[in-house]
Each structure stands twice: as C-alpha cells, then as structure tokens.
C-alpha cells in the first residue's frame, strides 16, 4: 500500500518528514487548543483538545462516509443529516477524549457547540460538522468546550496541517499526514486518527482529506467511496468497529484539475497510505501484516478471508513472538470458510509467507531450514521488541515513530476464481493489553 | 452454567475434588503414557502423552460431533468416516503436542497407529477412534508413538478417569472433570481439553463423555447434539475455531436408565459445566464473562450478539483491568448489529452489568457511585491479578486451580423478541500474549 519505502532513525527525522508533508492546500486553515476538564461520570480530571478545520469560505464540494456501527455517535447522526441535506461545509470542529456516543442529549449538545462556534466565526451553524472521539458513554463537557472555543479560533493558520494532525489523536503514538501533488498544481493532504477500535466498516475513525483540486461534490463523494472501499475498509487492528468512524474529504476547488484519473489515483494513494499508517501506529503494534488474497470467487470472500487471518488472536500472537506458527494461519482460513463460505473448494489453495511456499496440494511443506527463513522474515518486519516495564506490569512502546515500512507478507491463492483483495492488519502484543486494560481509567 | 458454586483455596483442595469426580462409569478403562520425541519440522525435542479410553468390550452406543473448520485434522476426517459407517467403538487413542492437520500422509499415519493398537489389544482397527491436539502443520512422530503404545496399554485401569483428564491437556492449567449421577445408578463422567483456539463450531477441542446408562446410539447422538448446541457452541476464549474440535459420548449401557429426561438434563449439565471449565481455564483468563442475551428475534441472533461481546478485544482488555468501560460493550453490540443484523431495531435495548442498569432508552445511565459498584463487581469476579514476571516479559499465571466460580454477569435485553442465549467468554490478559507469542517454540 505505501507509496514509499520510508525509514526513520528517530522521532526528529520523522517529524521533519511530517512537517514537509504538512503544507495545506490552498484556501484551508486549521487550529487547535488543549484544556483540562471534569467529566460527570468519574471522579477525576481529564484533558481534551479541540481542533478546527476551516476553508476560507464555505465549500460546496464535500464528501463523507460514516461508521456502520448500530450505535453511532451523535456527531455521526448530525453528519449524516448535513450530508443528506447537501449543506456546504464552513468548518469542522473535532474533540478527542469524549466520543459523545449514546450520551443523554448528545445531539443537542453537539449542535450547541456548532451554534457557539458559528457565532464566533460568523458562520451558519448548519454548515459546521462536529466530530468526536474518545471514551464511549461520557457526556461532552460542553461548558469547558465553549470556554475553549475562542482560543481555538485564535489559533487558526493556513500554513501547516500538523496542529490538526496532532490535535485529533488519543492513544496514537504519533500524528499521521499523507500528501499527493497533482499535475496542474493541486494537492491532496490527509490526516488520520486511530490506534484502537479499528476494523472500519465504511470508514475509519476520524480521517480528514483536504484538497484544492477543482472537483464537484457528487464526483468527490463517488471517488471517496471508491478509495475508502479498498483502503480503510481493508484494515483491522482489533476487529472492533468504532461508533465514531468518519472520513471527510472536502475541496476549496481553488486549483484546476484537468486530469481526473490523476485525482482518483492520488486520492486512493492518500487513503491507502493513511490506512497503513493507522495500522502501523495501531495500539501495541510490533508487526504490520499484509495479506494478499487472490484466486477468490469474489472480492467480498477475498476480503473476509484476509480479515480472518489478521483478526485471529492466535496468529497475531505468533507473529508478535516472531514465531512462524503457520498452522494458525491455516486454522484462521479454515475457521472463516467453515463458518461462512460453505461450498468453497479449497483443494487448489496455496499459501506463501515472506515468499516461501508453506502449503500446497492439501499439505504443509515445512522443514527446519524453511522455518529459519520464515523467522528471519518475521524479524525483519518487526518495528520493536517489548521492553521489560519499569513497574513490572505496564508495557510502553519504546519508540514514538515508525522505524520502517516493512511488513509480514502473506500470499493466499484460493485457486477458486479471479477476485483479489489486499488486507492490512497487525500483531497482538503486551503493549496492546497494557494500553487497553487501563485506557480511560 | 455451573451446577455448584465451588471455591478452592489451593491446588490440593482442587485435586481432592477432581479425584472425587473421577470414578469411572461401569465398563470403562483409561490409561496414559508420556515420552520425548524429535519433530521433523524443527530442530529441538518435544514431549507427548498418549491417552487411551476403552470400554471392556466394543460398544455400539457412541455419538460424536466434529469441528466445522474447513481444514479439519486427519483424526476428524477418520472420525467422520467411522461415525457415518455406524462402526462400534472399541477404543479411543488420543495424543497431544501434534494435531496432525494438513500433514503429508496424515490420514494414513493415524490409521497406522490404530492398526498397531488393534494388534496389541486384539481389537478391530476400524473400531478405534484417533484424536490429536497440538501444533498444526507438524507430522505425527509415528515411530515414537508406536514404541510408546505398549506402556499405554499396560497402564489401563477401571477406577479413575483422572489419568486421561491429565493426559489430553496441552496449555491447560489443570485437568477438567465433571460428573452427574442419575436415578437408577448410572453415571455420566466427562473430561475436556482446551485452553486456546476456542470458539467451537459444532464441538470443542477434545471432549470425552463416558456413561454406563442404557441409551441406544441414535438417541445418544440426538441428546449430544442438543447438549452441545447450548454448551460448547456458546463459548469463546479467543474466537479461533480449532481444526481438531471433537466431542465424543459413548455408553457401555451397563446400567438401566428408566428416566430419559434425567439423562438429557444430566448430559447437558456435564457439557455445560465442562464448557465453563474450559473457559475458566482458558489461556490467561482472569475473569469469566457470562452474557445473557434476551429479547432477541431468534436464538442465532442472541448468540451472535453474545459472541460479539465476549470476542471484542477492547472489552476483554477492559474487563481484565477491572475497568467498567461499558462504552466498549455498546460498541461491540453495535458492531455486530451494524455488520450482520441490518434492520434489527435497538430502540428498546437495555443493558445491565453486575445487576446495575447501565443503558436504557437510548442513553447511558452512569455516575461515579455506579462506577464504583461496577468496579467492585469486576474485582469480585477476578480469579487472579498479573504478577510481574521474573524475566520482565513472560507472564505466568500465579495459580493452577480455579479459586471460585464467579463471573462478570452481563444482561442484554434487545427488546426485539422472545429468544435468548447464554454465552460464556473471558477477558484478555498479558498471560494470553505470553502463552501464545511463544507456545510451540
């Protein structure tokens, strides 16, 4: 998926690269402000960042996709309404820490925030899109947020998207920015938040793609759906589909875009790069796993089998331990096919890992030398090994940047058709458990 | 699910209880032997136990269910053939450490083991049922196994099933035995192996239920299917359906069984007790989670929603950390309904945990006092807390017995029908990661 084979020796190198990615397309401004508040549900304080993304004047060219989770957050409910009404976009207001899902009066509270921001910036409330991510169940601390809005507005600037990429994160280790420059001078710049509760179903949690390319609204929506289908909808960190997944793409149309194919490919590139960034920065991820499923009767089957592999806890743990336990790979495929693809003939199935054939003609082909090469492939794809925690129990990743873009490469040829899909997932580690056994608390 | 509210202060108390459970029904013998061998696939040695279960003479009353995984092990392929032919059962030969799945010549090798055992015990090869559990992909070390068979036959005895319950385990912390005594003097005694790769689809990995009740073959198969459907098919430890899942139930018919209802209930009791034992002894399990889903349009929907909750990595981690993060519970339900139950109306849904109402009428009902009570419920259900590992990285459970039979109790009323299902699962901990990042190696 990624457009480049990037390597970073340390966090400073990574940040310098992010800064180069961060130049905003024409006609866009972003800003952010951070503050402390008191949640109503627990007896302790917490911190929140409010991030603003705004075109210089309202744009009609805006596309969006939202989660399919049956308990969508209040911002998703509002976003769907705005999109259905064909409303232009004047600003996006994003908060982390509290996701505003199934909270009492959640929709009214989010609308109140939009109303106040509209007054401050002289915008129509209905043209402001709210987004929230964080703890599910808590109410938005609306008084604290309204107090913080003037500082957020004050911080708006048109040079760099980096403050927004940093403002929207929760458990992410680092901000994620990807850009593509198009023939004719237009650019596409995207940012993503997401490190846990990631198996998007129609969109992933909080992705904003800004452009100045002259693309009209309907076209933009079509291109976005196409790009999301084969990028964000093909990844999983932990199989948990968020209640807040949102992808927004909007254009100021400030720069002509004569080559629509270049735009489509560029948008797909930004989306698929960000999708892999989200996985690589997934909670506790040591290894990214790319599963190329081919020879499938249809695309959905190919994707389902790839997802079954990357979502298998046992295979995820084996990869984490650099253990070439390929039996768990077979078990994961067989579980999915046995449960949901009855009648799919697997007699022609063959499987390779790191370029080594491991299964063909109904049986495994394993020996001690191949085992050694498989382990070497796993080790080469490892981003870091666990470091013994200071308190003996709480594992913390020893780095806050991606050292490389290598992955564990798995090829599955089902031998049962012509459809294919590339699914990207990750391993399962002590750092994931440490993050999630006490995140929120 | 469990018939009793057992508590054990230490491993000795637990073993004394197991020993009382272990008396064999009339006409049954078991034996086991352990040895070292050299696998063909890696350069190191490993240990295996061969376990034998045999009636005094072949029994026609035998029932069995096998995995739905599309890559079944060789013993499953053979077992299906034997059952379809209506063959009587003369012996079961079980090995751990190597599961004989998709191994070159796997079926022929398992048949060779049956042939040699038949010669030693003067039994028909076709009346011997093989079972294997362990690493997927490795070949059976058949020469080592044939050498070990005489010692296994020599060890057969008719008093206690404990040697078999101990012989079939792999990563299990302790053996699992459950018994029911029926009116009229017949007994049902079952043993189970299983600690990982557990989300059974028609049966769980290696369960043997022996009885002397006078029940004919067809009836036994029907009662077994009925019992498995609401016991083993309603549990999950890690959502990974094994390639070797097998449940066998057989009867010597030595004792009259006038009360068929008592037998059915007794068989269900043994199966559901063993199913919860399998979860409680699951890899790295700190908390058992019982999800009672009611108000569902049908049984399958109720089970799918219960499974979605216990298989959510984020909810599992929260429970492990005694964190009452009920937002993740809602997210898991919404993920399942959004992806696979389109049109299911959740407006009447209500949810309780530990008897506390947490969600009703479309919104959460949370406050700091309720939070405190929810955390107390989680702590009361905890079996142990992680102990900082000696090497800083490898977590080992600090106990090898179940201290109690409490669970995290969740009630979900979908408000959309009359069907219900009880699903039993577990949390996700550092001990699971440690076990599975290097099990096999």
Give keywords.
homodimer; 441 residues; alpha+beta; L-amino peptidase D-ALA esterase/amidase; Ubiquitin-like (UB roll); 6-stranded mixed sheet; 5-stranded mixed sheet; 12 helices; 15 strands; globular
Textual characterization of the structure:
The structure is a homodimer of 441-residue chains. Chain A is of the alpha+beta class. Chain A folds into two domains: 11-280, L-amino peptidase D-ALA esterase/amidase (4-Layer Sandwich), CATH 3.60.70.12; 288-438, Roll (Ubiquitin-like (UB roll)). Chain A is 34% helix and 22% strand. Chain A has helices spanning 11-21, 74-85, 106-121, 142-154, 162-167, 217-229, 260-280, 299-310, 313-320, 327-340, 368-381, 430-438; strands spanning 28-37, 46-55, 61-66, 91-95, 128-132, 176-181, 187-192, 207-213, 246-255, 288-296, 350-353, 356-360, 363-364, 408-413, 419-426. In chain A, the strands form three sheets. Chain A has a six-stranded mixed beta sheet with strand order 13-12-11-14-10-15. In chain A, strands 3-9-8-7-6 form a five-stranded mixed beta sheet, with helices on both faces. In chain A, strand 12 (356-360) and strand 13 (363-364) form a beta hairpin. In chain A, helix 6 (217-229) packs across helix 7 (260-280) and helix 8 packs across helix 10 (327-340). The longest helix of chain A has 21 residues, at 260-280. The two termini of chain A are 35 Å apart. The interface between A and B is large, with 84 and 84 residues.
